[in-house]
Amino acid sequence: EGNVIHQALSNAGIPSVRQSMQSVFRSEEAMELERVLVGIAFYSKEAYVRAALLTNFVGMRLSDLVRLDSGIESWDEVLSKFYSLHECWLNSGFMQMFQNFLSTFNVQQRLAKFTDSDRRLTNLMHLSECIQAKSVNHSSISETLNWISTERIRSSGLEDDSLERLESDENRIQIVTIHASKGLQYPIVFVPFAWD
């Protein structure tokens, strides 16, 4: 219901934000970030790199991959970028590699073109913070990837640190469930599905 309201407000050009009880690990950004990190971890396996290239973060299309295959663009140059990110992760840790990834592929500028760019960027940054916090305990790349995969599968959304964050509530309608709004005060309240 919250998604329906959010979409209707968006279609009307009214800014809104959803407060979610969903884990950030259940988001599309978590799936795509996992693909990218697997591509970086296994940079020598073209299938993993191709999957990473087709994410919204990197922004390639199938036609771009065809150009890489035909030699119009350099496949070696792409693999070199993934290799550099892999080496950075090994030598400097997750967060430094993540920052390099953002700048190498202009991720923030690319995501800014989406209508829900605030949500996508908030999820991506939140995921990076969660991964960084856990990477202290999971020193190897494969341990970190295993942890991410486990979180994506099991994440119930009940852990406060993994709940999706508000992207921004500045001058926006806040969409919350009755349960999530307990104890909060709002000057105006609209309950669109009270009859259900």
Structure description:
The radius of gyration is 19 Å and the shape is globular. The protein has 196 residues and is mainly alpha-helical.
Present the secondary structure layout.
Elements: H1 2-11, E1 16-18, H2 28-41, H3 46-53, H4 62-70, H5 75-92, H6 94-104, H7 107-111, H8 117-135, H9 141-154, E2 173-175
Parallel strand pairs: 1-2
Helix pairs in contact: 2-3, 2-9, 5-6
Summarize the structure.
The protein is mainly α.
Task: For the largest sheet, list the strands in their spatial order.
Answer: 1-2
Continuous helix count: 9
Q: What is the average per-residue confidence, as pLDDT, rounded to a whole number? A: 83
Which sequence of SSEs, written as H and E, runs from N to C? HEHHHHHHHHE
In terms of DSSP E residues, the strand content is: under 5%
Keywords for this entry:
196 residues, mainly alpha
